[in-house]
Amino acid sequence: MGLDVFIKKVVYGGYGLGEDRGRKFLVRYAAPKELVEVEVLKEKKDYVEATVKNVKIGSAWRRTAPCKYYTHCGGCQLQHLDYEGQLKVKEEILLESLERIGKIKVKSIDGVLGSKKEFGYRIKVQFKVRDGGLGFFAWGTNELVPIEECLLVHPKINQLIPALKELVKSVKDLQELHVTYSPDEDEFLLKLITVSPMETEKLRRLKEHILPKEVVCLGNYTSLRGKLIKRVAIGREFSFFRLGKFRLRVSNDSFFQINHTLYEDFPKLVVEGERAKRVLELHSGVGFFSFWMAQCCEYLFGSDANQSAVKDAVYNAKLNQISNVSFAHERAFETLKNHAGEAIDLLVLDPPREGLSEGEAKLIVQNKPKRIIYVSCNPTTLARDLKVLASGGYKIETIRLVDNFPQTYHVEAIAKLKLL
Questions:
Q1: Which residues neighbour 125 within 8 Å (Cβ) at sequence distance 6 or greater?
Q2: Active site residue 296
Q3: pLDDT of residue 368
Q4: CA nearest to 89, candidates 409, 321, 391, 347
Q5: How confident is the model over 181-200, as pLDDT tens digits?
Q6: Which one is catalytic: 73, 150, 297, 377?
Q7: What is the pTM of this model?
Q8: Rounded to 5 degrees, what angle do the CA atoms 26, 143, 134 make?
């Protein structure tokens, strides 16, 4: 006899939250306000992790997942909800995080920017490789689920998969295979992550004999404490992407936004209604937001810890003939320290998932920029950081949701704040 659990809501991580006789349940593949029969996966001290075995009373948002690998592959968590349902769930996750972690009560979000496509939006993918198989890990494990296609990636990446499988056969101790595709240039940049180094000649042979001509770069990397270290690369190590009126060079080692359907709408939403003299931008990358922001200010200074991205940003400023920007290779904390005491009209933040460090948040509150735009890819660290900024004298003007990752639990947001 199975155990029936009523799902109150879906929480960050993609789990349905329910309760049974005082025990908290985190249930995979559930939807809000559903009654589901569950199968227990793990019993922890504070909660039980389970998965849906049978839906007794289903949500109006529930659908049959379009992907044949769903519930096997761990890449997607929300494919069983229609897209309207996914956006509603993400909105609730954002509001709940703000209230529970940030102690910030917001009645509703000031707008939602959904992806223009539910599927085929990713231009970048990291395939896992195990025992000659290419695919993704199952939810919460290192167990490989081999795949023939992924519905989230650009169709051209799926067309490359047969060649990638041939590559897997030819490279020993291959751990991961990273692919970046430029829809504008119709070309690929590839990274092979291996345990032992590969010879340049071997890479050249693979590029010439196995891969199509659209693969312009093939690099060999090793993973050291979670960071990729480049050993050798052949071919051209960059491609170009179009963002509305701007054309950006993006190198194989630079971070770049993944959802190509929002390359114009996302930065436009960030800069909407802005006017400033001096702008300081942290984690500016290749200039994804910078050049849009440059049109709304007299001068912008951007910094990033990734040297490759900074070189791209400097190049992109020249390419797009934008003269009121400059970029530096330095960590966010150093930039804040170096600009302490300066009058900053607007501070733009786009930190990684970890959010602001304690030191960064402290320096921001001390420096007191007049306004802040915080672009977040993690609602829990956003809520934590907004709590610190609010206690430092800032008022939240607007919070908008951006969905760069349909079918997954990832939530992005744009928060705008002003100094009281």
A1: 150, 152, 153, 157, 178, 179
A2: no
A3: 95
A4: 409
A5: 999 999 999 999 999 999 99
A6: 377
A7: 0.95
A8: 125
Determine the Cα–Cα distance for residues 165 and 157; give it in Å rounded to an integer: 12
Cross-strand pairs, 124: 180
Residue carrying the six token digits 């402290």: 362
Structure tokens at 400: 């908008």
Tell me which long-range contacts 352-359 makes (C-beta under 8 A, separation of at least 24): 352/283, 352/377, 353/377, 353/378, 353/381, 354/378, 354/381, 355/381, 355/382, 355/384, 355/385, 356/332, 356/381, 356/385, 356/388, 357/332, 357/333, 359/333
Q: How far is CA 341 from CA 246, 286, 318, 364, in A?
A: 33, 27, 30, 11
Question: What's the chain look like in SS3?
Answer: CCEEEEEEEECCCCCEEEEECCEEEEEECCCCCCEEEEEEEEECCCEEEEEEEEEEECCCCECCCCCCCECCECCCCCCCECHHHHHHHHHHHHHHHHHHCCCCCCCCCCCEECCCCCCCCECEEEEEEECCEEEEECCCCCCEEECCCCCCECHHHHHHHHHHHHHHHHCCCEEEEEEEEECCCCEEEEEEEECCCCCHHHHHHHHHHCCCCCEEEEEEEEEECCEEEEEEEEECCEEEEEECCEEEEEECCCCCCCEHHHCCHHHHHHHCCCCEEEEEEECCCCCCCHHHHHCCEEEEEEEECCHHHHHHHHHHHHHCCCCCEEEEECCHHHHHHHCCCCCCCEEEECCCCCCCCHHHHHHHHHHCCCEEEEEECCHHHHHHHHHHHHHCCEEEEEEEEECCCCCCCCCEEEEEEEEC
- The per-residue pLDDT for range 352-402, each reduced to its tens digit, is 999 999 999 999 999 999 999 999 999 999 999 999 999 999 999 999 999
